[in-house]
Amino acid sequence: QVQLTESGGGLVQPGGSLRLSCTASGITFNDKTMAWYRQAPGKERERVAAITPDNRIVYAESVQGRFTLSRDKDNYKRLAYLQMNSLKPEDTAVYYCQTQWYWGQGTQVTVSS
Questions:
Q1: What pLDDT is stored for residue 93 in this prediction?
Q2: Residue 23 contacts by C-beta under 8 Å, 6 or more apart in sequence?
Q3: 92: helix, coil or strand?
Q4: Which residues have a Cβ under 8 Å from the Cβ of 77 and sit 6 or more positions away?
Q5: What is the band of 44 on the pLDDT scale with cuts at 50, 70, 90?
Q6: Would you say residue 2 has pLDDT above 90?
């Protein structure tokens, strides 16, 4: 059974940082494109960042320079991160990791003072 599990969300003040983790079981995503998405209340889900099997990474313009997607150095087949710095209130959303047609359950990120 394939499962993607996100963790690391929470409440942070503007300008703060969070690191989200995505752990895969039943599947490896180092040989597939893997992505982070987010969905804010009343808005469509949008792709935040994606990494290809050959490690090309693309970011949404809204997070470029602030967010960093990476694979774990040791567990690169099943563990990836989204480092989020200089967070803004507009980054508030549920964040999901995705590969192929599989999605995690999401983790809430709230940026508020």
A1: 98
A2: 4, 5, 7, 78, 79
A3: coil
A4: 24, 28, 29, 30, 31
A5: very high
A6: yes
pLDDT tens-digit series, residues 51-101: 999 999 999 999 999 999 999 999 889 999 999 999 999 999 999 999 999
Environment class of 21 (CB within 10 Å of its CB; exposed 0-12, middle 13-18, buried 19+): middle
Distances from the Cα of 90 to the Cα of 22, 28, 86, 96, 113, angstroms: 22, 31, 11, 16, 12
Residue 111: CB partners within 8 Å, gap ≥ 6? 11, 12, 13, 14, 16, 87, 88, 89, 90, 91, 92
DSSP string, 4-39: EEEE--EEE-TT--EEEEEEEESS--TTS-EEEEEE
Average pLDDT, the chain: 96
Instruction: Quote the DSSP letter at residue 81.
Output: E
